[in-house]
Amino acid sequence: MSPVSELAIDLDRDGGGALHRQIETSIRHRIRAGALPAGVALPPTRALAAELGVTRGVVVEAYAQLVAEGYLTSRSGGYTRVASAPAAAPTPAAPRPGRPTRSRSPRPVVDFGYGRCNLAAFPRGAWLRSVRRVLTEAADERFGYLDGHGAVELRSALAAYLNRVRGTSADPETIVITNGYAQAVSLLIGVLATRGARTVAVEDPSASDDARPITHALGLSVVGVPVGDDGVHVDAVAELGADLLILTPSHQWPTGGVLSPQARAEVLAWAQRTGALVLEDDYDAEYRYDRAPIGAMQGLDPRRVAYAGTASKTLAPGFRLGWLILPRELVEPVAEAKLLADRGSPILDQLTFADFLSGGQFDRHLRRMRPIYRSRRDALLKALAQHLPDLKPAGIAAGLHLVAWLPQDLDEAAVIAAAAREGVAVAGVTPYRLSPAPRGGLIFGYSNLNERVIADGVTRLTRAVQACVRA
Questions:
Q1: Closest of 249, 283, 251 to residue 116, by C-alpha
Q2: Alpha-carbon distance 452 to 347, whole Å?
Q3: Residue-level pLDDT at 303
Q4: CB 74 within 8 A of CB 63
Q5: Are residues 21 and 160 both part of a single domain?
Q6: At 380, phi and psi to the nearest 5?
Q7: N or C terminus of the chain: which is more exposed, having fewer CB within 10 Å?
Q8: Which candidate, 32, 112, 68, places its Cα nearest to that of 388?
Q9: Which residues have a Cβ under 8 Å from the Cβ of 29 and sit 6 or more positions away?
Q10: 380-383: long-range contacts at Cβ-Cβ below 8 A with a sequence spacing of 24 or more?
Q11: What is the pLDDT of residue 90?
């Protein structure tokens, strides 16, 4: 275990800032400088607090922040340790004489996987307190069979939160709780199909892998609507003959654009004129780093817009709770479909999340995570600008991923393959397109990577791109 003296923490109690921030900064600098190597155990919080003359809570908060940033790791009942730095890429074994070699990419050293939040930052303590309150206070009958709408406690808490933060027009009676976004879109498309829908339109490119399988299984057609820098092209929307249009207007996935107020009005005018429904996928609007996010489209026309949200990007994807705000005529059909599908989402999770929301813990968690994600996004942009200036980042300062467009003379698949040989896993934009595009792009997820790992990943990717250029 590292002794307290090795941390070299010198607190300035006269105008030096919050004490926990000073402790964080000191330990962070020691880790970056290599003075605290990977795997070394830090002093227990009580010991360090006693040595520094602060309360234990100050040290606990400092450790928790560094765990969230990826500098430390912590396990219940164990020591807090310095996180492992990225390992060197494994050296391929020499082929045995007389035996053919097989091409195999090394296991990723840096994984720019997207679509997930920082799992280590899940607020376990606050969540546990909500669980205890629910188990202590919930009436026995709340653990019986459910209806398809979801727990009224959660629907009420969500309506209050979304109306306040996202500008929706919701009340508990128009919300249906689902098992994440995937079930939400599946239930909605199934109900629309029974009511005569024939065509579903999606953004191109888009994360339509949740919608397309159910659409094809029900015999419906899928059409793509091209996307520009600011989201979907409204002139293409005006010509659509679709029954449902699925949009990500607040942060287009994956390109990162925001649909302008004028474009939103034109989309709504199209929906009103044709009788179509817009499904607003508001998957990560809580993470906007340069200004307040634009309000939800659903608040502009609750009759023509259904709103889908999920806790996957804010708490954890394994949480499996999502929600739909629906036009009133669709509430009962969707709730009946939900009941038929699985008899309702787990009540303990619903009640716990309701308590977590109502008590302000969800807001506090988001406030804690925004600067962490912003710092990681900034580190990624800085590294790309320094080492790969020909890659052009797209989109606004928001979310948990970033798209960077490749020069036209670089093949997307070749770059991804070369990156894998350098120990970097990164995805391309092409698999999410319905139509060919003039150039490729890379999707960088950064939520689970600290700044050191991000810099290492871009350095490795630079070698991969250079190899492609030489080839």
A1: 283
A2: 40
A3: 97
A4: yes
A5: no
A6: -65, -45
A7: C
A8: 112
A9: none
A10: 380/444, 380/446, 380/454, 380/458, 383/454, 383/455, 383/458, 383/459
A11: 40
Q: What separation in angstroms does the CA of 75 have from each of 25, 41, 383, 450? A: 22, 12, 31, 19
Looking at the structure, do residues 46 and 179 belong to the same domain, yes or no?
no
Indicate if 67 and 136 belong to the same structural domain.
Answer: no
The amino acid present at 450, given as its one-letter code, is N
Token representation of residue 136: 């202590």
Write down the pLDDT at residue 439.
Answer: 86
- Whether residue 457 lies inside any domain: the answer is yes
Under a CB-based contact definition with an 8 Å cutoff, are residues 335 and 250 in contact? no
Q: Are residues 353 and 398 in the same domain?
A: no
| 212-222 per-position pLDDT tens digit | 889 999 999 99
Task: Give the number of domains in the chain.
Answer: 3
Q: What is the DSSP letter of 105?
A: P
Q: Which residues in 304-396 belong to E strands, given as ranges?
A: 305-310, 322-325, 392-394
For tokens 């164990």, name the residue.
78
SS3 at position 426: coil
Instruction: Determine the Cα–Cα distance for residues 299 and 305; give it in Å rounded to an integer.
Output: 8
As given in the structure block, the two tokens for residue 467 are: 């190899």
Give the CATH number of the domain where residue 310 resides: 3.40.640.10
DSSP-assigned states of every residue in 237-300: HHT---SEEEE-TTS-TTT-----HHHHHHHHHHHHHHT-EEEEE-SSTT-BSSSPPPPPGGGT
pTM, two decimals, is: 0.78
Looking at residue 99, its pLDDT comes to 41
Task: Determine the structural domain holding residue 64 and report its residue range.
Answer: 4-82
Q: Which two tokens stand for residue 61?
A: 């908060």
Residues forming beta bridges with residue 227, ordered by sequence position: 232
Same domain for 450 and 408?
yes
pLDDT for 32 = 80
**Residues 342-353 pLDDT 10s:** 999 999 999 999
CA distances from 138 to 142, 144, 352, 356 (A): 7, 12, 10, 14
C-beta of residue 335 within 8 angstroms of C-beta of residue 187: no
Same domain, 376 and 398: yes
Low-confidence ranges of the chain (pLDDT < 70): 1-6, 16, 76-78, 85-106
